[in-house]
Amino acid sequence: MGRLNTTLSNGFILVGFSDWPQLELLFLVFISIFYSLTLFGNSTIIILSQLDLRLHTPMYFFLCHLSFLDLCYTTGTVPQLLINLQGHDRTISYGRCMMQLFIVLTLGGTECVLLVVMAFDRYAAVCRPLHYTTIMHPRLCQALAISSWLGGLVNSVIQTGLMMAMPICGHLLNHFFCEMPVFLKLACEDTGGTEAKMFVARVVILVFPAALILGSYAHISRAVLKVNSVAGRRKAFGTCGSHLVVVSLFYGSAIYTYLQPMGSYSESEGKFVALFYTIIIPMLNPLIYTLRNKDMKGALWKVLGRDRGSGVGGE
């Protein structure tokens, strides 16, 4: 307990990218640009979805939640990183570290569940088109969105609680934010039982939703292949294409980080992978959903006063 109290009073030092001092200025410039693009792109999706009545559909309702998640996720990690890269202050208190960890796990878990919800929405649109408006009733959409947030919150409470109960030794966190695999490496004693419980929780929040998404798209693929016209198949696949790209990027990086054995986790590689899912993916999501989406592009032109008369119809 004495060792834990020392950590509690002194906090941690975030090593960040100080191992590569020659790259810190370059990282600072590019991450600042990417962060600005992330804020602009995701805020634009939320604003357009509220302003244009054509976007008041379940698909864009869930997309707004995804954009809000990305805004919160990057804001929970990137400002700390930018301060770290300037070398002004690399310390973080135990309380702030636990809060950051709790927020990151909550938002990450919420996105896991939300992507399942979005897959279900695409399944209903493609496989049950005649009953789509009945199935995706506004009250069901709200309940699904709330369930996503609650799922992420429960996952975060479990994992953060287990970590807070672990005795911690040392003050150096070889990362640019309080990431769980790095934090686990500071455990003072054998924590095999606790890590096993946390691994099960990570499997539940990652593998189970991924399996549901794959199942949804298996049904979607079968339904699309039954469509006679090539144009109809292309439109149906295009409707789901953006979501599949986002799912692949998000789950690929999350599974790499959280489901590999802690003994084989590379802190150096982990930092660069973390850059991908905390900065690059939230920046790419608005591009993925807008560049290939006629409804969103039409809403943007309308706000800019250049309404090209694009109707609702998806991608």
Give an overview of the whole structure.
This protein has 315 residues and is an all-alpha fold. Helices cover 75% and strands 2% of the residues. Helix 9 packs antiparallel against helix 10 (267-291). The chain is globular, with a radius of gyration of 21 Å.
Tags for this model:
mainly alpha, 11 helices, 3 strands, disordered N terminus
Concise overview:
The chain has 315 residues and is an all-alpha fold. Helix 4 runs parallel beside helix 8 and helix 9 runs antiparallel to helix 10.
Draw up the topology in text.
Elements: H1 2-10, E1 12-14, H2 21-51, H3 58-85, E2 91-92, H4 94-127, H5 132-135, H6 138-164, E3 172-173, H7 180-184, H8 192-225, H9 230-258, H10 267-291, H11 294-303
Parallel strand pairs: 1-3
Antiparallel strand pairs: 1-2
Rg over CA atoms: 21 Å
Classification by helices and strands: mainly alpha
Average pLDDT reading: 83
| Main beta-sheet annotation | 3 strands, mixed
Helix content: over 70%
Secondary-structure element order, N to C? HEHHEHHHEHHHHH
Low-confidence segments, given as residue ranges, are: 1-8, 309-315
Give me the side-by-side strand order of the main sheet.
Answer: 2-1-3
- Report the strand count: 3
- What is the oligomeric state here? single chain
In angstroms, what separates the terminal alpha carbons?
Answer: 57 Å
What's the number of helices? 11
Taken as a percent bin, the fraction of beta residues is: under 5%
Task: Describe the global form.
Answer: globular
